[in-house]
Every structure is written in structure tokens, then in C-alpha cells.
Amino acid sequence: MSQLFEFLLRQGDNALVLGHRMSEWCGVAPALEEDIALANTALDLIGQTQLWLGYAAEVEAAGRTANDLAFRRDAYDFRNMLMVEVPNEDFGRTLMQQFCFDAFQVPWLTALTASSDTRVAEIATKSVKEAAYHLDRSAKTVIALGDGTAESNARMQTALDYLWPYTGEIFADDATDQAMAKAGVAPLPSSLKETWQKTIVQTLSAADLTQPDSTFAHSGGRSGMRHTEHLGHMLATMQVLQRSYPSAVW
Amino acid sequence: MYAQMIKSEATKEDPEMLAAFQARIDAGEKIEPKDWMPEGYRKTLIRQIGQHAHSEIVGQLPEGNWITRAPTLERKANLLAKVQDEAGHGLYLYCAAETLGVSRDELTEMLLDGRMKYSSIFNYPTLTWADMGAVGWLVDGAAIMNQVPLQRTSYGPYARAMVRICKEESFHQRQGFHVMMAMVKGTKDQKRMAQDALNRFWYPALMMFGPSDKDSVHSAQNMAWKIKMNTNDELRQKFVDETVPQAEYLGLTVPDDTLNWNEETGHYNFAEPDWSEFFDVVKGNGPCNTDRINTRQKAWDAGKWVREAMVAHAEKKRARDSRSVRP
Ligand SMILES: [Fe+2]
Ligand SMILES: [Fe+2]
Ligand SMILES: [Fe+2]
Fold it and tell me: Which of B58, B174, B178, B322 is the most exposed place for a label (fewest CB within 10 A)?
């Protein structure tokens, strides 16, 4: 597998898996405005998935399409970070998950707009506008829910404590990251940690939430070595038609 | 149609005021929220717009059921956007109802405790991907029949909401038809799913227009007030006349042995749906009534802390802002 292909799968799978999680709220969100906003976010992420996986399929040049990559790979071939695959649990966890992701995605995509790979730069240029909008909204919602009531504050703190050990994986550079940095395709994720941390600190303080002390980080999503148990269930649902009717065109 | 069997509320106002009000409606004027209106007109509209809004919201569920299983990224995005549109329709309609003096939360409570209804169609399950085609094609298609004339309804905010909604509904109908086309052009399994979906949704779609109302007193009052624009039978006939050729184009069989073209009337003859089934569904005994309301209730309860927190945050923020502007 080429390093560029691997890199593109990571981008596409993050968007696909998080977009899928967001889409699970459709029809059952806490208020109509939130229902519409979550669907909007999910739509943006699915759109980004089409671009990233579409390019990944071209780079692979093995006759697969974006849909083949989304619907015909099993969990161990997925390359998303673990943080985006954990289940929704409650609205607080969903928004905290979205926020921790957006806080990285904005500086990350901003950096990718200057990628040496023009296709990567194009996709990033289109996606970064959406990401900035997502961050604005998720940060505001995290602040509102942290600040709101004693119950909402406690729920947001629980969500943060649960998600925190998954955030470290975002910045754990590996061989693919090194190769991309060397080729000027993308910066090292670790180089964006400070920027991310600043957004986190600002938002958590406005939200009256406490950043956990632990520096422990789960890993295994971006490498595909060890996903959570949750991803397999998501894929079982997501891929059911493509798997059950392999010759069908939809 | 999403508003079924709307009774008109009794009105006992000054006959002169009533006559003047009716004259405005007859002259094609729009009634606006601040205008005088008979109590019966206001109550009937609340019931109708509320039921329509609830139908959009509960109507998210049967299609939402397939968002996580959509077979391609394109289909997933299209379906998600469609269901999101329905949430938007619910929002416009709740806003229109609010101009009549009832809040969205009050209406929601009435939906959940059974005082208000939603369209019977959403109490049927979606069982295969072809149902995403059938729902768009038939259910949005039937909704359009009713909603296009409602763009001319007498109540201004309702008429304007309908203008926005109708544009999107016809897009939904085409999108549903395209899903069906892909299915009938597909494998044997896909064709079977498409025919099965039509078999299950044909009669429930005909029921959407409500039972024959030519003898109904309520219907006459609602038509005079231009809250209801056509009879149920007129709209049902129009729907059958438009849909049968589409089914033929798809190569699907409408599940009605009696269906035939009537040269004399220029319309199709067709079999009435089983109205006892309809009344069962309306009474709460449809295949999904309990599950639909339970799903909405669960979402409403689970979202309570979020809604409360948003209000509390807004109040705290207001208090902080007003403190900070003081010299
Ligand atoms: Fe709608
Ligand atoms: Fe509608
Ligand atoms: Fe629709």
C-alpha cells in the first residue's frame, strides 16, 4: 500500500466514520434546530468522504471506487482515528467528539491547503470552510452545555473524560506521517498539537470544564492495528446492502 | 395529504363579523396573524398545521430508518438531505402555528400524549431499500397533490410555508422515483424489492387523502374558509391518474385487479383502500404507531437536559452581558 494511499484513507475514513455517527441523530436530536445542524455536518462530512476516498481510489489504481472503499472494506482496513468511531451515548458526547475533532481539523486542513499535492490542496481548500463552520458551532455548543446547568456540566465533563484518552492518537506521528511530511504533502500531526491545545483550553475554560490530567493515549485506529469493538457494528450496518447484494447497482 | 380528517371547530361569533371575514376570504385576501379571525378558524388551523408539522417530524423516522444503511455515499447524502428537509418543513410549520398562539413545545406535548395526530402513512414500516424509492415517489407524491393547492390557502403564514415546502417536496418525489428506476433496472432481487414496496405502499398512499368527504359538514366549512382546497376524492383521483402511468413506465404492477382506464370520465377506475384498516391505524393500531411515538418520546426525554441547558446558558449570558455594559 502506498503511503499516499494510506494517508488519503485516513482523511476519508475520519470523515466517513464521524459523518455516519452524526447521521445517526437524524430524527431523534434534542431539538429540531440541532437535528438540522447535525444533518448538515453529516452531509458535509459525507461530501468530504467522496472527495478523499475518490482520490484514494485513483491513487490506488486497482479499479476500486470511493463506494468500494467505503462499503467493501472490513474494520482492519479502516484508517480513521479511534475517537470518531465511539458510539454517540448522549448528545454531550457527540458534541464533545465533534469539537475535539474540529479543533484539529481546522488547522490541519488549513495546512493541507498548501500541500505539494495539488489534489490534496484542492480538497482541503473546499473542506476547510466547512470545518471552520463546524468548529464555530461545536465550540459554542460545548460552551453552552458546559455553562448551562449542573446536570449539563456534569454530562459534558463525563463526555470529555471518556474521550480524552482517544485524543492523543491524533498527534502520534508514524511512518506514513513522516513520509507525507518529507514529501510536503502534509505537516506532521504533532506540529499542530499546540494550536489544538490552545483551542481546547480556551473553550473548556469558557465551558467551565476541567481538562483531564492523564496523558495516556489509546492508539490503533490510524494504523488499523486495533480498532474499538464499535467500528465493526457500524460497518455491519453501513455495508449491509453492498455485502448482501454484491452485484447490485443502486 | 399530511392533514387527515380535520374537523372544523364550532364558531359562535357575531354574524356580521363572520360575514365580513368570509367576504375577505372570498375576495382572495390573505388573513394575517394580527387580523381578527373566528375562534373556530384559528382552532381548526392550529389543528391542521400542527398535524402537518407533526407529520413532517414523525415522517423523518421511516426514512431515517435507512440512512445508516444507504447503499452508496451518493444515496446516503441524498437521503440524509431529504430527511433534513422534512425537519425543516416541520420547523416552518411549527413557526406558522406559533403565529396562532400555540408554542412548539405545547404542540409537541400534544403529539406525545395523543391529543394530536400525524398522517397515518408514517405508521407503516420501511422494510427494504426500495421503500426509500416508494416513499419518495408515492408519499411525497401524494403530499404534493394536497400541498400545491394549499399554497393558495387563506392563512398567510401557512400559505407562505407551503410555497417553500412544495418546491422541496417535488424534488423529493423525483429523487424517490430515481431510486425506484435504479431498482427496476437492477438485479432480480432489486426488482422484487421494488414490486414489494409498491404492493405495501399503494393502498396506504391512497389512504393519505382520507375517507370520502363529500357528505362531511366539516369539510364544507373548511373549504369555505379555504383551509381545505379540494375534496379528498378529487385529490385521490388526481394522484391515481398521475401515478399509474409512472408505475407502468417503471414496469411495476399496481396491486389492484380492478384498475382500468375509463374513456368516458377520462380517469382511472380504481379500488378503494380498506377503510377499516385506515381507521385502525388512526386509532393507534397501525404497524408502527406505538414505536413511532415511543421513539419521539425517548428523543424528547433524552434531549430535555440539552434544551434546559441551552435556555440556562442564554439566561446566564444575558445576565453577564447586562452586568458588563453597566458603567
Ligand atoms: Fe415535507
Ligand atoms: Fe409535507
Ligand atoms: Fe418530502
Answer: B322
